[in-house]
Amino acid sequence: MNIHEHQAKAVLKSFGAPVADGYAVFSVDEAAEAAAKLPGPLWVVKSQIHAGGRGKGKFKEADAGEKGGVRLAFSPEEVYENVKAMLGKTLVTHQTGPEGKQVNRIYIEDGADIATELYCSLLVNRETGQPAFVVSTEGGMDIEDVAESTPEKILTINIDPTQGVTEADCEELCKALKLEGTAKEDGFKLFPILYKAFTEKDMSMLEINPLIVMEDQHLRVLDAKVSFDGNALFRHPDIMELRDTTEEDEKEIEASEWDLAYISLDGNIGCMVNGAGLAMATMDIIKLYGAEPANFCDVGGGASKEKVAAAFKIIMKDPNVEGILVNIFGGIMKCDVIAEGVIAAVKETNLSVPLVVRLEGTNVEKGKEIIANSGLNVIPADDLDDAAKKITDAVKK
């Protein structure tokens, strides 16, 4: 689960991280009041969407201006005008895609005198199975660009979870970021704070870009992006309250209500599979035959007829879907249950696109019999290769 920048900063601030004062506003009327609470003379007006590249982004609407989604203001009146220009408008960045995202809230923050911009993030290093800091002196830039052009400027420091962040770790991090004097002292305080927030709140990613050294040599978290492990959210009701469903795909929201693993993609072939590994293999073979998957959908190992029908209907809500491939290997999941769910969903949705069904495993003959006797236009497949070929051929006709 992702949260907004202002929420991420509030979480980090609760752990003791140095964060500027700021206020989130949801209407133009709140802008002047929020600006008056900050001392100035510089205010930063930031669009809040779940996407990066806001400063370089462009609004679709001409009346929003050409300044992007992050703007500097030098008076409360200018704050008001910027909020008025951006709120409710559609911001397009390199991460939103061409459709962009509507700005429903704006963060007004106290400005900072920046001396140096750094990059600092925390994630789990899959190679070591340990939390790791990823840091660079090239802050304020897209880290992907740094990785491509100057990978030697990105350093990874693994943290032993049995020890936490040690003085040796802090020393290594400060050296990597070239922190000295007051900034180094702040680093020794900040790095354990970030690690504590990361582990205690079950974050999957904590990214600060930029982490700045100010003119007075103190560190400050200038921007923050945080994602949480969805499987651990039951432990954090306070974090669950921060969820903004307006930033999420409606199909993914509905899928979560049915406990389905569903992720929207950009392709034209809808997929319904049981098991993450089989789902990935199904997506791969669809691409092999020249088409693109429209979604990742794992109905799990013990889905009911109702859950299968719900998954099918969610897939059908995607207007880009030109065909559907159902690929089920029945272990705990029985093929006849899958067949009944598919048939029920097809009847309810008045399916108008090709449907290929490949069943294997427990009660497979019974499942095939249910589909064969349904009277519906369903294309049977013998194996995964056959299924992928049939669905890709069907959508090309």
From TrEMBL:
Biological or metabolic pathway of the protein: Carbohydrate metabolism; tricarboxylic acid cycle; succinate from succinyl-CoA (ligase route): step 1/1
Positions of Mg(2+) binding: 209, 223
Cofactor(s) the protein needs: Mg(2+)
Pfam families: ATP-grasp_2 (PF08442), Ligase_CoA (PF00549)
Binding residue positions for ATP: 46, 53-55, 109, 112, 117
Cofactor note: Binds 1 Mg(2+) ion per subunit.
Coiled-coil features, chain-numbered ranges: none
Keyword Transcription on entry: no
Keyword Transit peptide set for record: no
Residue ranges annotated for the ATP-grasp domain, each copy included: 9-55
Domain of life: Bacteria
Catalytic activity: succinate + ATP + CoA = succinyl-CoA + ADP + phosphate; GTP + succinate + CoA = succinyl-CoA + GDP + phosphate
Matching SUPFAM superfamilies: Glutathione synthetase ATP-binding domain-like (SSF56059), Succinyl-CoA synthetase domains (SSF52210)
Its EC number(s): 6.2.1.5
Binding locations of substrate: 274, 331-333
Enzyme's top EC category: ligase
GO molecular function, one term: succinate-CoA ligase (ADP-forming) activity
Keywords assigned by UniProt, alphabetized: ATP-binding, Ligase, Magnesium, Metal-binding, Nucleotide-binding, Tricarboxylic acid cycle
Family to which this protein belongs: Belongs to the succinate/malate CoA ligase beta subunit family.
Subunit (UniProt): Heterotetramer of two alpha and two beta subunits.
Function: Succinyl-CoA synthetase functions in the citric acid cycle (TCA), coupling the hydrolysis of succinyl-CoA to the synthesis of either ATP or GTP and thus represents the only step of substrate-level phosphorylation in the TCA. The beta subunit provides nucleotide specificity of the enzyme and binds the substrate succinate, while the binding sites for coenzyme A and phosphate are found in the alpha subunit.
Protein known as: Succinate--CoA ligase [ADP-forming] subunit beta
Name of the gene: sucC
